[in-house]
Design a protein that fits this description.
The chain is of the alpha/beta class. It has 13 helices and five strands. The protein binds zinc ion.
Length: 280
């Protein structure tokens, strides 16, 4: 989410060698995606470590981004961050890092079984984890492919994340839309809305909530009609969501499309890859 903390991250990475490193060459040839699950020192994070590895979460995100021809290797890393609830992309060593602390905070605010809005515990945890990893992947793509950005980079990274996730299978897309929206709505409750909040490089949580739900609704008004019908997205905003989605899709096609190994529009390969990550 925040990129300014990378020097600390590099220092910590140098101090603690990764417990496990999986090198993976993209099965389609070309750039390599590497995933690193650093074993946590705190026993309380052990379950996150085991679950992330079993579900091959970093490999899944890496497989998606592996559809882009990258000029260099990109690393995805799970690690302990000395109490920092964070995730970031570091251009210096071309790596996306997500902290145990951030995932733990997501687990803590997830509903026991289902939220009043019907978001399951599983989606409330997996959704934001994938949304965050795809958001940081957006920063990585901007950097590695030298993508020009009009507007705020944080908004652009959210839009790229949304566009990619909306090309996954309906069930996977629903997981990230529901879970991501739940997470933004939850963090909004603890967000101070004072003058300083408006100075942040990120949008406010409710803005990110509406941007995500608008992209989903704009991608398929029938599939996501409940978002508007249940009042999660105001009609006034919903009217323009198809145009908003098309604008992002057009920019993606123009700027990142030439670097893709496949046709993004159909997304069938992407959906298959995300569903069935091969064993290393
Ligand atoms: Zn960001």
């Amino acid at each position: 989410m925040r990129t300014r903390l990378w020097p600390l991250a590099l220092m910590l990475a140098a101090a603690a060698p990764p417990a496990e490193t999986l090198a993976r060459t993209n099965p389609m040839g070309g750039g390599t995606i590497r995933v690193v699950y650093e074993a946590p020192k705190k026993a309380v994070y052990r379950e996150i470590y085991d679950t992330m590895r079993q579900r091959r979460v970093l490999e899944r995100v890496g497989t998606i981004i592996g559809f882009v021809r990258l000029p260099t290797r990109l690393t995805y890393r799970l690690k302990e961050c000395a109490g920092e609830l964070n995730a970031w992309y570091a251009p210096e060593d071309r790596s996306v890092t997500i902290c145990y602390e951030l995932i733990d905070s997501i687990v803590r605010v997830a509903p026991r079984t289902k939220s009043p809005a019907g978001v399951t515990r599983r989606d409330a945890i997996a959704g934001p984890v994938f949304q965050i990893l795809l958001h940081e992947s957006g920063h990585a793509l901007f950097d590695l492919l030298h993508v020009p950005i009009l507007g705020r980079e944080e908004d652009a990274a959210d839009q790229v994340a949304s566009l990619i996730l909306l090309h996954l299978s309906p069930a996977d897309a629903r997981m990230v839309v529901d879970g991501g929206a739940y997470f933004f709505a939850t963090t909004a409750k603890e967000e101070p809305v004072d003058k300083g909040a408006f100075a942040d490089v990120h949008g406010l949580s409710w803005q990110r909530f509406y941007n995500l739900t608008c992209m989903a609704y704009g991608s398929d008004r029938r599939r996501y009609r409940g978002i508007v019908a249940k009042g999660f997205l105001p009609k006034e905003r919903a009217e323009g969501c198809e145009e908003e989605y098309d604008q992002v899709a057009f920019a993606f096609q123009k700027l990142i499309g030439p670097h893709l190994r496949m046709r993004f529009r159909s997304g069938a390969q992407l959906r298959r890859a995300f569903r069935s990550v091969p064993r290393s």
